[in-house]
Amino acid sequence: MKYVAIGIHGSFFQAVMDPFVGEPACIFANGTGIGDPTIFERIELDESRVGFRQLVGGYLSVQSVGNLAFLGISQQFGDDEVFTEVWWADDRVSLMGSNGLFVCAESGGGSLVVVNRAEAGPWEKFFYTQPPVELIPLQPQRAEPVGDVAEATTSMQMPRQVDVTDDVASVETTLQRPHS
């Protein structure tokens, strides 16, 4: 899967903002639904090594403060942003960080995601959930020239695009937002 939500016991990894700098700082396993903050692009580096880019910016990263190693967000991609996937027979996956230890959702989720386990137990095994197709960014389409250069056109699909029809009433109904 190219895009994933990483989950355990119904909670998904999501970045928590640092109130002092206004940027994502660390990852908690407390996301209750799938949306931009919980969707990651899974970047395959080789057969077992991957990186994760968050749709709202930055890469999952092993970070440390004192003796605490945890998942955070980095704006750069380097060794600390590479994880080794260990797949289990039940389709769960464990992630080993650059420090040689496993990613762990403490207490099975709901709190800070740490990177401090020598072995993979139940709190270190996650499911990748494929996000709904309407939440996945669409890729630009390659333009194929048709006829002469003056007739060639390019197109790029944008996510969450509304299909427009000739029926104005249908379009107005489609574009209305639910009242809160």
How would you sum up this structure, described in words?
This protein has 180 residues and is mainly beta. It has a single domain (3-133), classed as Trefoil (Acidic Fibroblast Growth Factor, subunit A). Helix content is 4%, strand content 37%. It has one helix at 168-175; strands at residues 3-8, 11-17, 24-31, 40-44, 49-54, 59-65, 68-74, 83-87, 93-96, 102-105, 113-117, 127-129. Strands 1, 2, 3, 4, 5, 8, 9 and 12 form an eight-stranded antiparallel sheet that branches. Strand 6 and strand 7 (68-74) form a beta hairpin. It is globular. Residues 140-180 have low confidence and may be disordered.
Summary tags:
globular; two-stranded antiparallel sheet; 180 residues; Trefoil (Acidic Fibroblast Growth Factor, subunit A); disordered C terminus; 8-stranded antiparallel beta sheet; mainly beta
C-alpha termini separation: 35 Å
- The name CATH uses for the topology is Trefoil (Acidic Fibroblast Growth Factor, subunit A)
Tell me the series of helices and strands, N- to C-terminal.
EEEEEEEEEEEEH
Largest sheet: 8 strands, antiparallel
Count of alpha/pi helices: 1
What assembly state would you assign to the polypeptide chains in this entry? single chain
Integer-rounded radius of gyration: 20 Å
Question: Per DSSP, what share of the residues sits in E-state strands of 2 or more residues?
Answer: 35-45%
Low-confidence stretches: 140-180
Could you tell me the number of beta strands?
Answer: 12
Helical amount among residues, as a percent range? Answer: under 10%
Shape: globular
Structural class: mainly beta
Average pLDDT, rounded to a whole number, is 80
Under the CATH scheme, the architecture is Trefoil
CATH class: Mainly Beta
